Amino acid sequence: MVKVGIVGGTGYTGVELLRLLANHPQARVEVITSRSEEGIPVADMYPNLRGHHDITFTVPDVDRLAACDVVFFATPHGVAMSMAPELVERGVRVIDLGADFRIKDIELWEKWYNLKHTCPDLVAKAVYGLPELNRDQIKGAELIGCAGCYPTAVQLGYLPLLESKLVDHRRLIADCKSGASGAGRGASVGTLLCEASESVKAYGVPGHRHLPEIRQGLSGIAERPVGLTFSPHLMPMIRGIHATLYSVLKDPVGPDLQALFEERYRNEPFVDVMPAGSHPETRSVKGSNMCRISVHQPQGEDVVVVLSVIDNLVKGASGQAVQIMNLMFDLPERSGLEQVALMP
């Protein structure tokens, strides 16, 4: 049985970890922390977990966390890097759902997150947490920087095209939409019902914190720096990311794109390449760890349009983190992640 600690259990990714781990046959949550909710039973804050987790929130304590096999950080940026070095030194495997260990260029990270990074040496050792890209490295890793939500949807959509060098890597456009839960559980005027409902709003077009992470990932896949325009939007829904991805083929009469995607993801348990002509919907992945993808070549011309949908809290965060834990501890990759998406 894998003993699990969770730092930051009151946000959306924290409670999603609790939901998924409640039905995991080989993992047990031993510690869950929250400074503001110390002493409060988890089930009192989240009644959906009644009968599943008999545990109370405690303040973060390194000694208690060090008794776990793995510790998840479901925290804002800047938190994991303050505790991860000691946990790793004491033999605990760490999975950070935040951004502290995703970007390898420390100076770039500090620019986008407006913080001084306190353990740059660990960043070099951390493995980027996207299983479809780094499965073998994840298995032996001590520290994981779990891929972000937008970066997951975008990278999985572009991966077959860039690996095969079929498209112009300098001309990539990612037009992405996210539900309001992507902004976190903290109170914000922009995500109030009266502000977000019945409206679609672009944000972060001049620059979004996920941009350098996506560029880093796509550049690694393409084996050269990519040119990327990334435009995120807020949608009037709770969960989900829809990424519409554009690229230009070097040769419009090249390989069969449908076959390319089906072959690349044939053995991936959480990527579903849909039949030709499909238009995946966010509701088809709600509550599940699945990424559904379709690929189009409109009018047979040189533009490729890839549609990629995920649940931002599952495959875009907590589900991906559990998938990573399964790989790290040599457990069946689907363990705790067999949920069928909720429809309607």
From TrEMBL:
Residue positions of the active site: C149
Subcellular location: Cytoplasm
Enzyme Commission number, as recorded: 1.2.1.38
Alphabetically ordered keywords of this record: Amino-acid biosynthesis, Arginine biosynthesis, Cytoplasm, NADP, Oxidoreductase
UniProt keyword Cytoplasm, yes or no: yes
Classification via Gene3D superfamilies: Dihydrodipicolinate Reductase, domain 2, NAD(P)-binding Rossmann-like Domain
Pfam family, any one: Semialdhyde_dhC_1
Protein family according to the UniProt entry: Belongs to the NAGSA dehydrogenase family. Type 1 subfamily.
Name of the protein this chain belongs to: N-acetyl-gamma-glutamyl-phosphate reductase
Organism per entry: Marinobacterium iners DSM 11526
Name of the encoding gene: argC
